C-alpha cells in the first residue's frame, strides 16, 4: 500500500507514549513528503524497534530525534539519540541475530533484550528494497538510518 511516512511516524509515537514518557522527541518531517510503498505493519515494527532501542540504551531524560529526507531515488529516515553510541567495531554486528554489545547498560532494567530487534529491522527494510545501518554521531550518541526506494509506480514485491 502507498503510505505517507510522516503519518506512520506519528502513529508509532502515539502507541509508544508509555515507553517514551518524559522524552523530548524532536521531529524534522518536511512538508509534502511523497508516499512510500510499504507494508504498514512491517514499517511500524521497524520504527518501533528503533525507538525502543533509543529509549532503552540512553539516559531517561535524553532527547530522541527523528528526521525524514528525500534524496532523489530514496527516502531517508534517521533516528538519533544522545546515548553512549556503538563501539565502532560493532556497528555492523549489531544487525546480526542475538548480537548485543557487551556490557551494554540499559536505562530501564525491567526489559531484557534478546538481540533480535535490529536483525528483524534489517530483514524488513531489505525486503522493501532499502538499506539500514548505524552510525555514531560526532556530537555523541548513535543514529540509525534506513532508506526506502521511491519506486514511482512500479509494484514492489515486499510481501
Ligand atoms: P531486542 O530488540 O530483541 O529486545 P536488543 O535491543 O538487545 O534486544 P537489538 O535491538 O538487535 O537487540 O540491538 C542489538 C544491540 O545493539 C543492543 O543490545 C545494544 O547493545 C546495541 N544498540 C542498539 N541500539 C542502540 C542505541 N540506540 N544505542 C546504543 N546501543 C544500541
Ligand atoms: Mg532492540
UniProtKB/TrEMBL annotation:
Residues 1-152 form the Histidine kinase domain. The chain holds residues 405 to 563 of 563 of the full protein. This is histidine kinase. It is found in: Membrane. It comes from the Bacteria.
Amino acid at each position: 500500500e502507498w503510505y505517507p511516512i510522516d503519518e506512520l511516524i506519528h502513529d508509532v509515537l502515539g502507541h509508544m507514549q508509555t515507553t517514551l514518557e518524559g522524552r523530548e522527541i524532536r521531529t524534522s518531517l518536511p512538508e509534502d513528503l511523497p508516499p512510500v510503498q510499504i507494508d504498514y505493519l512491517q514499517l511500524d515494527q521497524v520504527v518501533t524497534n528503533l525507538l525502543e532501542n533509543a529509549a532503552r540504551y540512553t539516559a531517561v531524560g535524553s532527547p530522541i530525534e527523528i528526521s525524514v529526507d528525500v534524496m532523489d531515488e530514496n527516502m531517508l529516515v534517521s533516528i538519533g539519540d544522545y546515548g553512549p553510541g556503538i563501539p565502532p567495531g560493532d556497528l555492523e554486528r549489531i544487525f546480526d541475530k542475538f548480537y548485543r554489545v557487551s556490557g551494554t547498560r540499559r536505562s530501564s532494567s525491567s526489559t531484557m533484550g534478546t538481540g533480535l530487534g535490529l536483525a528483524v529491522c534489517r530483514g524488513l527494510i531489505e525486503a522493501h528494497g532499502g538499506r539500514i545501518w548505524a552510525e555514531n554521531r560526532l556530537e555523541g550518541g548513535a543514529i540509525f538510518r534506513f532508506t526506502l526506494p521511491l519506486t514511482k509506480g512500479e509494484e514492489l514485491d515486499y510481501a
